[in-house]
Amino acid sequence: MMKIGFMGSGAIAEIISQSAVSSGVIRCKDVYVYDIISERTAFMHNKYGYTACNAPADMIAAADYVFMCVRSDNAIDMAKTLKNYDFSGKVIVSISSGIPMLLYENNVEHAAVARALPNPPGRIGHGVIALAFNQLVTAAQQDDLKQLFGAMGTCLVLDEDKINAVTSLTGPAPVYAFFQGIVESALLLGISHKLAAEMAFGTIEGCLKVWERNIDNIGGLLAETSTPGGISVRQLYNLEQHAFKATVKGCYEEGFLRTKAYSDTIKEMLQG
Fold first, then answer.
1. How many CB atoms lie within 10 A of CB 189?
2. The pLDDT of residue 254
3. What's the CA angle centered on 81, arms 80 and 86, to 5 degrees?
């Protein structure tokens, strides 16, 4: 059974490790944790039974897969320290948003590197996790990581240059904002908050279930609900008048451009 280690033990480390343990992919004792804040390391050990490490060297030596769960603005400095350790036969897994695999490839000779992007719903097993691998990650190691992240939801393997787009597209904030808009619309029309929330959730859940059965034909589902001259057609027309689709696309494009700019800055620095 694989052994995994975490450089940093914040919320994302907690979610990934608990998903893996709960699904039986890994045992508690095979999770190794190091955090610069020793109280946090102790917390992970006391609460979950993980193996607490007093130094990065101990965690790296024990783990098959080393997860870099550090803030993006700390990743560069942290990566520079990795050249002091032996990563033979191990995979470095970059979790930080906007951090390219090149950062670790430049600091660790012959590094096998994966880049993963879990989104928040992964904490309940309904996430979308994007995965990319460099050429040194073996097929067996790729299978291990797909199994581990698969415990968090839908795991998608793609080229690294698509990760920045996925970072934007899988962020739940715009989706929650749309949900909130439905609830607030109900309030505007005189529905109580509790009823509005239940109504909005039920509608959204039902639509998702129908879409799931016909995942590639969202246009067809729209056509089915749009009776000529009916209410739905008028609602869609109102959305078009306010550039609804353009606003949605602009929202996700903005997220992509922000992430890409950060990633490109790091690449330019590394290649400069």
1. 8
2. 96
3. 110
CA distances to 132, 200, 224 from 125, in Å: 20, 22, 31
Residue 82 half-sphere exposure, CB side, CA atoms within 13 Å? Answer: 29
pLDDT at site 39: 94
Q: How far is 157 from 113, CA to CA, in rounded Å? A: 14
The predicted-structure confidence for 15-35, as pLDDT tens digits, reads as follows 999 999 999 999 999 999 999
Q: Which residues contact 166 (CB under 8 A, 6 or more apart)?
A: 117, 128, 130, 156, 158
Place of tokens 């209410």: 231
What pLDDT sits at residue 97?
A: 82
- Spans in the chain with pLDDT lower than 70: 272
pLDDT, residue 272, reads: 66
Q: Which of 69, 131, 78, 71 is nearest to 107 (CA)?
A: 78
The Cα 185–Cα 67 span in angstroms is 43
C-alpha to C-alpha distance for 51 and 41, rounded to whole angstroms: 9
